[in-house]
Amino acid sequence: QVQLVESGGKLVQAGDSLRLSCAASGGTFRSYVMGWFRQTPGKEREFVGGINRSGDNTYIGESVKDRFTISRSNTQNTVYLRIDKVKPEDTGLYYCAASEDDWGPWVGEDSMDYWGKGTLVTVSS
């Protein structure tokens, strides 16, 4: 069973860039499809995007695809979420999650098997 710990969340100013990390332990990281999610104030948790096992295929949600990038290092057992030109509406709790399912259009909250506790991003205007 894999354990996930997110980091990198902090207070930033609008327009800055930010990279979140999610370190995995206790499992075979390269065997998991990984996802990033966020919960912003007053909204339900949102699927930001995902990355396949080898890292050569990603999906980014339409609302953020021009600013968010997902990558992974299977040697460092870490998945990353880079946010460029952060906006106040990016404020929220960001989670990573791992799925034992195959990569495909069904990847999302329901396909995830393991979750981290989240890291808080606060964007000031």
Write the layout of secondary structure elements.
Elements: E1 3-7, E2 11-13, E3 18-25, E4 33-39, E5 46-51, E6 58-60, E7 68-73, E8 78-83, E9 92-99, E10 114-115, E11 119-124
**Apparent shape:** globular
Main sheet makeup: 7 strands, mixed
Helices, by number, come to 0
Instruction: Please give the number of β-strands.
Output: 11
- Pick out the low-confidence regions: none
Tell me the β content: over 45%
| Cα-to-Cα separation, first versus last residue | 40 Å
Q: What fraction, in percent, of the residue positions are helical?
A: under 10%
Averaged pLDDT: 96
Going by helix content, strand content and strand pairing, the class is: mainly beta
H and E string = EEEEEEEEEEE
Radius of gyration from the CA trace?
13 Å
3D structure, described in words:
Helices cover 0% and strands 48% of the residues. By secondary structure, it is mainly beta. It has strands spanning 3-7, 11-13, 18-25, 33-39, 46-51, 58-60, 68-73, 78-83, 92-99, 114-115, 119-124. A hairpin with a 6-residue loop joins strand 5 (46-51) and strand 6. The strands form 2 sheets. Strands 2, 4, 5, 6, 9, 10 and 11 form a 7-stranded mixed β-sheet that branches. A 4-stranded antiparallel β-sheet has the order 1-3-8-7, with no helix packed on it. It has no helices and 11 strands.
Task: Using brief descriptors, characterize the structure shown.
7-stranded mixed beta sheet
